[in-house]
Design goal:
single chain; 67 residues; alpha+beta; 2 helices; 24% helix; elongated
Length: 67
């Protein structure tokens, strides 16, 4: 999906608004490598591709607090 930056937007703010967290800012930056050459506060109207994120699979075993 593509979204357009608004006044005062940073990449992490756009990630938070779109995904609900900022854990994947690096993934979004990899999909939009040209944004690295822009100032931290993006110009209004900057097109940003928000890639589909695959949920992380749990690693290890699950710990049960109560059996």
């Amino acid at each position: 999906m593509q979204i357009i930056s608004q006044q005062g937007d940073t990449l992490d703010l756009m990630c938070y608004r779109f995904y609900g967290h900022t854990q994947n800012v690096e993934t979004v930056l990899e999909a939009n490598f040209k944004i690295a050459f822009l100032p931290p506060i993006l110009p209004i109207g900057t097109l940003v591709i928000m890639p589909d994120l695959v949920p992380a699979s749990p690693s290890g075993s699950t710990i049960q607090l109560w059996d």
